[in-house]
Amino acid sequence: MTHKLAILPGDGIGPDIVAEARKVLDALAADHGLALELEEAPVGGAAYDDSGHPLPDATLELARAADAVLLGAVGGPQWEALDYSVRPERALLGLRKELGLFANLRPAQVFPELAGASALKPEVVSGIDIMVVRELTGGIYFGEPRGVEELGDGRRRGVNTLVYDSDEIERIAQVAFDIAGKRSGRVCSVDKANVLESTELWREVMEQVSTGYPGVELSHMYVDNAAMQLVREPKQFDVVVTTNMFGDILSDEASMLTGSIGLLPSASLNQEGGGMYEPIHGSAPDIAGTGQANPLATILSVAMMLRYSLDQGELAERVEQAVSRVLADGWRTADIAGAGERVASTGEMGGAVVAALRG
Hints:
Elements: E1 3-10, H1 14-32, E2 36-40, H2 45-51, H3 57-65, E3 68-73, H4 90-99, E4 103-109, H5 122-125, E5 129-135, E6 147-152, E7 155-159, H6 166-181, E8 186-191, H7 197-210, E9 217-222, H8 223-232, E10 239-242, H9 244-256, E11 265-269, E12 275-279, H10 296-308, H11 313-328, H12 346-358
Parallel strand pairs: 1-2, 1-3, 3-12, 5-10, 8-9, 8-10
Antiparallel strand pairs: 4-5, 4-11, 6-7, 11-12
Helix pairs in contact: 1-10, 1-12, 6-7, 8-9, 10-11, 11-12
């Protein structure tokens, strides 16, 4: 079976890091018979410069036809003055909506060699392996009514609506429970059910769905407590499932436990098993083209793609093990290098991962 992949490098360091991820895909194709059909297209600011829109029709159609999408990064200061409707970041929202990407998976794992890079004590973060499952297409970011209205007498009112239907909660719950069943069997659902009726419903539906997963333990936590517990005792968490806005905030907090966002991948999935895979970091235009970018988050996003969309779990493990091996061997890019450690370029780090794959 040939897997069709849409490759969207984007802006800033996007082309730099995607190039290294393609080296990994090429190695898997050559050495393990992974049949791939890769096609590249512009997205974000690069697409706007080329066609006047951050998500051209041709790029969207390519993404729709693909089994999975690999995205680099979008955005940069040269596009900040554009109208909101055509800013590079609108491409992300467009892809999520048009591809039905409702489940965002963001793992936060601490590699043993980098425990000292975290802002927390090594003994607090060593062994962290958390999966944040964020609902991506509902909640306050998309609820109606919304907007800013004039009240008269110089006063204005900003309105956003937090709304969830039970079926939206059910499908994200199923994703979280399915993932937990393949891990340590624990789901913590994060809400604010003591003051928000919409998340009171969230908690009720989580309980209902949990009855179909007798091997998975469900617990609940208010979001303010969860934010505190993530820095107090992060190893208590395995799978965390939560709403769009809470997930946006908590996944960023969890990412900083690891010491560098340059190591963290993400996946956004739809109900058909397709998905978009990307590093969680931004486009870092100040280092674009300089060879300083860390490609490991993008390479680990490829591992997530192999596992969740291409049904290649064994190859996903090979990629993850190769990344662990290069870190254990002392390879470091600038963002994770300590005093006196040799700094590898983007290409050198990618090459080291390929060598470890083939070793």
